[in-house]
Amino acid sequence: MVGGAKSTVPDSSPAAAGGRKTRIAVLVSGGGTNLQALIDAQGSVITDGEIVLVIANNSKAYALERAAKAGIDSAVILKKELGSQEAFEAAIIGKLEEYDVDFLILAGFMTILSEDFTRRYEKRIINVHPSLIPRFCGEGFYGLKVHEAVLAAGETVTGATVHFVNEIPDGGEIILQKEVAVQPGDTPEVLQKRVMEQAEWIILPRAAQMLSEKLKKERA
Length: 220
What we know:
Layout: E1 22-28, H1 33-41, E2 49-56, H2 63-69, E3 74-76, H3 79-82, H4 85-98, E4 103-106, H5 115-120, E5 125-129, H6 144-152, E6 157-164, E7 174-181, H7 188-219
Parallel strand pairs: 1-2, 1-4, 2-3, 4-5
Antiparallel strand pairs: 5-6, 6-7
Helix pairs in contact: 1-7, 6-7
């Protein structure tokens, strides 16, 4: 909610003294606008964590260029080349272990991860969804489809949610939410941009810092 976000991770406070930063991997499929928001927030909003790896399941994802420009290592892992979900997830796990990753951020990652995978990283995977969960979420609600549904329902307020990821699409615990007004005459595209600018790009870095700080303190 605006001003007073709902949280299941302790609020940020002065960073724990000493110790390495929490190591973050970002999983992407497309343009990487949320990845860019995270990159831009490093050192300012995100002070206890650092993005050490970007993994894409699309070799043409522009997010890979964003990672390269920021000097962040990246990897492309394609399910169609590996032949199964199990092999695909095993390849991701291999990369995460290679880079000693502490937690994952799904930033427009258009693949549902298995229960085995999400349980392996319980409370260590977060995702941003472009609605106020539990409204307009779950299987089939992604991208413009979410904003089309919001407008079709005549909603006056929408927003975004950062939540932990489990085996249920958009079903994990809510970390942060932020409301955004729906304006008369909005199209799905216009609303999508406003939700990104006024909610997603704000609360995703905040949530990344909150979890980074929590995990860093646990190591201290």
